[in-house]
Every structure is written in structure tokens, then in C-alpha cells.
């Protein structure tokens, strides 16, 4: 192990994961994953005796390997501590030597937002009006990504508690393109749900001129999108294997899994005849893409 292994804090990790480069890295990784060039075993979960869960997510490719260890500790909220703790270790794909350590929650926040941006890039391209449903960490990350990649787009924030949406706008610097709303504006051409709700927060009819991206639900018991909306859409996912086990939106809608498509760079995805729904679940391949992005950015700075 190197005598001085670089360990990046939250700010430093965010700096080496700029959204334009991160989205490109994810698109490349999605193509490689579809070709079987990235190995990602099933996520392992182990309960802490005092409460909480340790999650282990490794991935390897020809050039790099990563091991993400994240602890989800719900009881931390009462102590004013972050609920998610952890790190991502990156290793050289040829020698196995440790390269650097990234802040785990920051990697998760930014690559999750970038996965949604990948969906826009591959399925929609240029959004005009994006509505974000939610007001937590992922709402912030998604708003930040949208402001960076699509500065001309209007962004509406819809939260169960309207004052939370306003606080988020203020935290983002109150850009003129952001607005708090109490319902999804009719001209929204992209809607992204980033909540932890167990019941649908979006129940509108599936529309041909609107892309819906579902992010928040990560267990079979959770669902942000109404089953009728799901059933009326062509469905894409970032992780086909995990979707069958974790994508509550799709599981509860009893989708035809044979018709659910993995998302990667394919021009035919944009030639849709039905409304589109993109459900993200996440996997270690996307953490590997983030590590690649960080490695390239660090080399530019050296």
C-alpha cells in the first residue's frame, strides 16, 4: 500500500466528479456492462447488532476495480449525524495497487443524479422544463446536476412540505430558473421522483411528451410511481438484475419483465412510440465509473 494513500473528503470528492465528465463515464460504463466487460456481483448486506446495515459493493473492469463500503444508520438522524456513512476504495486494474479513497455518500449522491442525467441524455436529450418531486439529498444533487448540464431549462421543485422546496432553492443560490410548485406543471417534459415514499407520489397518466425518471424506491415495498403510469409506459432500467428484486415501482405494477429494457447508448431508444419510464436502482458498476472519472480528473490536476 502506498505510504500516503490519497483520501478525499466530501468537497474533494465532489471536485473530481464534475457532472459532464461523470455522465460520460456512466454512459461508457453502461455500454461495457451490457457487453459483460464489468463484473458486479450482487450487493451484500450485513446488519449491525446495534441497528443499521453495512453494504458491500465491489466491481472490476480491465483498468480499475472498486469496493464501496457504505453503512446505512437510520438512528443517526436523531443525533444530528449523517444517516449514510462510508467510502469507495479504487484500485489499479493491472497491479491491484490502491489508488485513492473517495467519500462514499458523495459518490452515491453524485452518481445517482448523473444516472438520471444519463437517462435524459440517452432517451430525451434537451429538457425544457424538469419537475423534481422531493426535497432531500437527492433532490439537491439532481437540481445541481440539472443546473450544470441544462442551464436553460426551467426546474420546478415539488415537496410535500412547500417550505422545504424553498429552503432547497435558497441553498442552491436561488437561481432564476428554479421555482417551488404545488403540483406538476403541465408543460413539464421531464419528471424525476427522488423521495423515500412507500406510496406513489406521481399518479398522472403516462404521456408521450414526458419522460418520467423514478429514483427513490429501492425495496419491493416502496413505490413512487402509480402502477397505471408504469403499465402505460415503455420501461428502461439501469440494472436489470437488481430491478427484479428491488424496483418496487415495477414489482408492484406487475410489469412484463421481458419488455423491460436495460439502458445504454443505443439510438433506437430515442425512437419511442409510447411514453417512457426510466427506473434507476444503482449498482457498483456506477461507482466504478465514478472512480474512473475521479482518476482522470486527478491526473489532469497533477
From TrEMBL:
One of its GO terms (cellular component) is cytoplasm. Pfam families: OCD_Mu_crystall. GO terms for molecular function: hormone binding. Gene3D superfamilies: NAD(P)-binding Rossmann-like Domain, ornithine cyclodeaminase, domain 1. InterPro entries: NAD(P)-bd_dom_sf, ODC_Mu_crystall, ODC_N. This is Ornithine cyclodeaminase. It comes from Paenalcaligenes hominis.
Amino acid at each position: 500500500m502506498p505510504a500516503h494513500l490519497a483520501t478525499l473528503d466530501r468537497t474533494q470528492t465532489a471536485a473530481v466528479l464534475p457532472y459532464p465528465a461523470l455522465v460520460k463515464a456512466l454512459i461508457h460504463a453502461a455500454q461495457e456492462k451490457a457487453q459483460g466487460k464489468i463484473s458486479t456481483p450482487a450487493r451484500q448486506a450485513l446488519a449491525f447488532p446495534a441497528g443499521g446495515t453495512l453494504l458491500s459493493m465491489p466491481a472490476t473492469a480491465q483498468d480499475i476495480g472498486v469496493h464501496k463500503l457504505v453503512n446505512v444508520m437510520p438512528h443517526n438522524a436523531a443525533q444530528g449525524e449523517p444517516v449514510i456513512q462510508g467510502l469507495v476504495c479504487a484500485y489499479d486494474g493491472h497491479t491491484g495497487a490502491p489508488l485513492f479513497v473517495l467519500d462514499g455518500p458523495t459518490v452515491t449522491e453524485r452518481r445517482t443524479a448523473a444516472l438520471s442525467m444519463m437517462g435524459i441524455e440517452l432517451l430525451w436529450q434537451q429538457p425544457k422544463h424538469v419537475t423534481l418531486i422531493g426535497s432531500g439529498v437527492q433532490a439537491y444533487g439532481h437540481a445541481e446536476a440539472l443546473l450544470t448540464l441544462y442551464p436553460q431549462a426551467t426546474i420546478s421543485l415539488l415537496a410535500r412540505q412547500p417550505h422545504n422546496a424553498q429552503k432547497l432553492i435558497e441553498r442552491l443560490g436561488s437561481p432564476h430558473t428554479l421555482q417551488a410548485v404545488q403540483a406538476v406543471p403541465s408543460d413539464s417534459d421531464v419528471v424525476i421522483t427522488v423521495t423515500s415514499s412507500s406510496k406513489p407520489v406521481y399518479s398522472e397518466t403516462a404521456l408521450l411528451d414526458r419522460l418520467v425518471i423514478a429514483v427513490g424506491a429501492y425495496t419491493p415495498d416502496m413505490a413512487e410511481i402509480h402502477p397505471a403510469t408504469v403499465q402505460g409506459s415503455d420501461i428502461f432500467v439501469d440494472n436489470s438484475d437488481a430491478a427484479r428484486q428491488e424496483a418496487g415501482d415495477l414489482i408492484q405494477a406487475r410489469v412484463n419483465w421481458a419488455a423491460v429494457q436495460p439502458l445504454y447508448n443505443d439510438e433506437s431508444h430515442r425512437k419511442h412510440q409510447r411514453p417512457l419510464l426510466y427506473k434507476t436502482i444503482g449498482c457498483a458498476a456506477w461507482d466504478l465509473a465514478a472512480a474512473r472519472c475521479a482518476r482522470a480528473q486527478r491526473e489532469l490536476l497533477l
